[in-house]
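Input C-alpha cells:
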C-alpha cells in the first residue's frame, strides 16, 4: 500500500519591485539540508548559491531568480524562511560596552524601504535618458569597494537601455557602453549616483536598552548576512 501524500501549504506574496504576485511554499527536508550546509560555511558565495536554490525550489510560479533585484531576493527568502521555520528571528547583539544581549524581531514586520525621490528613468541631458536596473544578488559585490574602476563596472551592470525622443538603444557591446559612460561629465555621473543612493533596501532598525551600561542602543539590520540565521 502506498504511503499517503503530504499536502504542503502555499502562500501568496508580492514581489516588491514588480508587484508580481507569486506563490511560495515552506522549506522541505531537502531545503533544510541546503540551508544547514550553507550556514556552516564562512563563504558568502556559498550562502548566496544556497538561497538561490531554495528560492528556485520554493517559489511555485515562474520567476527568474538569477536576475531578481537584490532586495527582492532578500525579501522573498525571509518570507519563505518565516513560513518554514518561524516568523521570529533570534540573534545576539554585542554593544560597545561588551555586553551581549538576545534580540528578537518579527519577520512579518519587515518591509522594503523606499525613497520618494527614487527614479529608474534618468535624463542625463535635455535629449538623452537612461533606464536603470537594480543590481542582482550576484553582482552586489561590486558595491563592497567603490573606486573609479568599480564605478564603471557598476554602471555597466546597471544600465538597461539608453533612449532619446526617437529610439531605444538596448543592444550594445561592453566596449560601446564603456565609451558611452566615459563620455559623461561629472554632473551626469552624479545624476546616476542618485539612483544607487536611493535604491529600495531591506532593512530593519532595532532599538533596545543595553542591560550592561543601560544606554539606549540603535542597530540597523541590513542585507542578507545580517538576517542569515
Amino acid at each position: 500500500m502506498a504511503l499517503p501524500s503530504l499536502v504542503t501549504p502555499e502562500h501568496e506574496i508580492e514581489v516588491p519591485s514588480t508587484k508580481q504576485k507569486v506563490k511560495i511554499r515552506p522549506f522541505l527536508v531537502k531545503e533544510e539540508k541546503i540551508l544547514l550546509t550553507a550556514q556552516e560555511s564562512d563563504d558568502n558565495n556559498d550562502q548566496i548559491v544556497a538561497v538561490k536554490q531554495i528560492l528556485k525550489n520554493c517559489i511555485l510560479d515562474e520567476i527568474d531568480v538569477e536576475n531578481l533585484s537584490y532586495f527582492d531576493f532578500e525579501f522573498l527568502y525571509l518570507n519563505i524562511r518565516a513560513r518554514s521555520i518561524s516568523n521570529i528571528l533570534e540573534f545576539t547583539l554585542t554593544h560597545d560596552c561588551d555586553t551581549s544581549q538576545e534580540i528578537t524581531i518579527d519577520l512579518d514586520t519587515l518591509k522594503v524601504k523606499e525613497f520618494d525621490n527614487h527614479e529608474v528613468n534618468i535624463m542625463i541631458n535635455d535629449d538623452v535618458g537612461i533606464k536603470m536596473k537594480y543590481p542582482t544578488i550576484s553582482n552586489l559585490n561590486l558595491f563592497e569597494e567603490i573606486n573609479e574602476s568599480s564605478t564603471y563596472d557598476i554602471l555597466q551592470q546597471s544600465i538597461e537601455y539608453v533612449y532619446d525622443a526617437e529610439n531605444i538603444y538596448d543592444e550594445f557591446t561592453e566596449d560601446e557602453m564603456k565609451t558611452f559612460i566615459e563620455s559623461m561629465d561629472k554632473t551626469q555621473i552624479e545624476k546616476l549616483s542618485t539612483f544607487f543612493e536611493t535604491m529600495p533596501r531591506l532593512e530593519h532598525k532595532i532599538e533596545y536598552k543595553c542591560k550592561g551600561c543601560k544606554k539606549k542602543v540603535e542597530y540597523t539590520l541590513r542585507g542578507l548576512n545580517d538576517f542569515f540565521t
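The mean pLDDT is 88. The chain is about 35% helix and 25% strand.
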